[in-house]
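Ticket #4471: complex job returned nothing on first submit. Input attached below:
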Amino acid sequence: MERRDFFQKALAVLLALPFVGWLRRGKSAGGPLLWQIDPKKCIQCGRCATECVLKPSAVKCVHQYASCGYCEFCSGFFHNQYRQLNTGAENQRCPTGALQRRYVEGPYFEYTIDEQLCNGCGRCVKGCADFGNGSLFLQVRRDLCVNCNQCGIAMACPSQAFVRVPHDQPYLYKHAPKEPAT
Amino acid sequence: MIFFAQMRFPRPDFEDYVEPAMNLETQVADGIYLRLAVLAILLLFTGLAAYRWRSRRVLLLLSALSLLLLGFVFSACPCPVGMYQNVLAGWFTDYPLTLGVLLLFVLPLAVALYYGRLFCMGGCPLGAMQELLHFKTLQVPLWLDRIGRQLALALLLVGGVTEASGGGFHLCHGDPYFVIFSFGVSWTHLAVAGVMILLGVFVCRPYCRYMCPYGVLLRLCALAAPRKIAITGGDCISCRLCEQSCPNGAIVAPEPLKAAESPEQGRRRLGWLLALTPYVIILCAWAGYSLAGPLCAVHHDVKLLQSLDGNLRSDATVAFASSGRPLSELRDSVAQQRRRMRIGLTISGAIVGLAMMLELMALSRRRSPGRTYEVDAGLCVACGRCYDVCPVEHMTVKLRKACPPAAKSDA
Amino acid sequence: MRKDRPLIYLLARNAAGIAAAFLLLLTALVVSEQRRNHVLLLEADAVLTTMREQVKSLPDDEAALKVVRDLDYLYRDGYFSNERRLRLGIGLGGCALLILAVCAVAMTLSAPVELKRPADDSKERSLQLRRLQLATAASVALLLCLGLLAWRATRQNAATAVGDAMGEVGGAGELGTVAVLVATPTIAVPAAAPPLALPAALAAGAGHWPGFRGSLVPNANRLPPHFRLQRAWASKVPLAGYNSPVVWGDRIFVSGADRRERAIFCFSLADGALLWRVAAGAPAVVPEVTADTGYAAPTMAVDGQRAYAVFATGQVLCTDHEGAVLWERSLPEPKILYGYASSLLLAGPDLIVQYDMEEEQTLYCLDVTTGKDRWATPWQAASSWSSPVLLADEQRQVIFVAGNRKAGGFDLASGRLLWENSGMGGEVACSAVAADGTFYFANSGALAAAFAADSGEILWRNDNVPMPDVASPVVAAGVMYLFTSGGSVITLDAKNGEELYEENFDNGFYASPVLVDGRIVAVNMDGLLLVVEPSRESFKVVGRYEIGKKVLATPAFAQQWLIIRSMDNELVCLEAANGP
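Support reply: We reran it on our side without changes. The output follows.
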């Protein structure tokens, strides 16, 4: 009995050790942290759409309007070999028609994303980053993501762009534009 | 690293235009303390049901409740089974360890340290999945069961070393039941889940016994617990009816008064085992040391460096080129990971070898005469099947119902 | 053992059986359908992508357009209906699982207790023990086998691995840059190697003509001491451009552009045949340029594997030597008077682009394999038509950038602006030349000066001489030569800037002179090619040749061949044969 008692006490001490370590390290933001894409590291490889446990993927494209140029030729909307600058299917990059174009005024058009249709493939993001302002980027949507302890996309991401963010900063935006937003 | 939101085209000045809202939440609720509270309550009731009320029905209902709440209502992650990876990552890498994660890891272990493996029945959705979908018991022979449990130990150690050297949480990624809890669509995972469930129909709790890394820790803590489940509410009469009732192989029979072999034989065997142990440990440690090389390839950085050195182009090498990360830093990081894997896996090999020999020696042990049927605290998952089989239990229950109970103390 | 089972048990058991069978069947159906649809959708997507691009080249083909649009509709319809079916399948499966679980609970709760016959245990235990011993031995043996296999595999890898494992920090003198490699599988490039680090790249380039003015490395091309030039071949370049040809091995690269198209052309050195042409994609904006600058004024750069070009639209195009596009990108806001003209500077694994536009001025350093920024330093200067120059030795790698308002020195590794000097006066189109830790610069309307590479301090300046406004200076044997557009050639002492002597010609020099084999080669607007021996005393012409065409671009050298691009857009190749 004494042997088992000693064993028990020893294990109890071992179990308390992590708390000591945690106290010494200091407190971090609450809760197990959430997965998010760092848009600066993302290379738009397309795995966000295929590696998520869920179908459709929890990753969607978001549009930071403050950085958008509202261009008539939007390199995220049109691919480089476009036939005409209209919404014909042969001109668009998006395979599901999720990126939508609406005339505003002058030579300017507004581009919005229909999240029901977006599958997170990142083609519009690539076009926008390579030739445009980079105002379109991929993010993990918190209302869809189930927060796996080990995100399947994170394991497959070639640029290690999946990082953990605290609960009070669930999205990682791109750098603010130099001009103030109107 | 340069930000890519460069304003190639300046934002126009609109006359009257309101830009749409981005609709992104600024704060997300953190549910871990609620999850901990639910787990604590479930464990409390499991303890009551296993020790005080001694009712398999209540235990089964608690199991179903844990499956529903902790598996589906709250999303499956994080669960205590995988938390040891988070704790190790928090120690050895810069993964931020939080109080919630620590508590989630420690709570079932602390309960096991005093009351045995209550978590496996009343708090674990994976266990519940197996418990509820088990219909026809095929007894696993003792030797197979004991050697199979070493697999769980190996997974614990290999997974732990991988995390400590900076890899991902591979055991969470490879968990067979997770795909069901998350309603995920991954064909390999679904196939594995299907196979495990089918296996679980015939073999009780295959994951819990042979693959669960957390179960190894729970077994260790439960062995040290002062209290364990008693098969009978009264005094055991050695009627032997409970022997085959435990599908988990947790019931230990007392030695027959006429032992099958003489003490002389037993002592000699024990001597042999003790003599062989150091060699086994060294051999297994060496095996771990050599396996470290190929196993390092699970790390992203190691694969990346292999691609770079092998002049192979991949998305990862392209991303690396544009990341601005110096190659020397990558080499340093990989060298450190390899070092940790090597040391860790060598130690793991030694531990696995030691555990196998200890298992053998434990079975060779002679038990003092006069013991009754008891559970092996390290293996018993408090499922309550043995209560129903024991005739003394039935009589005691009837008696308890007939007259108000005096406080019965369990052995 | 009780024979009769309660009704609930039987009901639950049957329901569980049905639910289990349903679940199995459903899973099998859903999985097979999903897998099939997945493959079909992928194929459709690939077909659509190619068709979308092809449709552009058939502007009048309405039928093809309809085909693409119909296929796209089918794809999207198929994609989303597949998703709906999957969700339905998951929903049904979830329900079946729930029913199964409920029935299982009901079965267990209502099941009668089964009493099992106890086993015959006296021999059982020792049998189990023996088997466990065997199993343990087998496991250890298995572990050892795995260990042996892993050992052998590691030994094989170690024989071919490069500086790895136990804490060795490898990498051959990278100067803080990334040594990455590329071998794109579709192109049969023999022995693909990583882009060389700077010193190796400079050394390799010396045997070719990798950029504007031969990139100013001590060039390994040789001219015979006495030679005569004879015409080898002439080819027309399909699109106009004022950029100078660049050469690597037996290939000549030039770029050309007009309002509609921007392209790289590759000619064979042996006979001038056009090997391939590659066009850049659609630009975001096509700026206005003057006729005497055009859309392809910047000279290309080339290394052992890739060719790079930049155009007035801000597009940077990179192809390999066989004409496959490796990467392409756009730089922002290409708005500058006359049109963009700064040539590319290739520095090993980095491509430097001086992008000093009217409103914003940035020095870019692009990674040669991906085109992404390694760094991009904005600075407050003004427009510039000059090209950047690199001074690289053991102590420093400094890039000299000259513009209308100031000159600046940038560090190659980090992109940091090391110094800036506001001495420049007017519009600057000439580029500096680097020698002996000093940058020599001259531009009419600005100044003629020598800048110390580390501090930017002006070592000497001379404002009293006629200066070039297009042709860049050259320094040889301690003498700085200025070839002006008025036709005069002025020499200054490189140490103190004092004028040594002056020589006059009928027509002006627009092409920048280059140093080959220790001698200066210059061409003027008449097509008069001069080979000058550098000297402090007098203007020593050791060779002259009348090309017979107007020349604006700097000639390129490849062993004993000269390649000249004339103003009427013809590529002329002259051979320097030995003789008087």
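Confidence is low (pLDDT under 50) at residues 177-182 of chain A. Closing as resolved unless it happens again.
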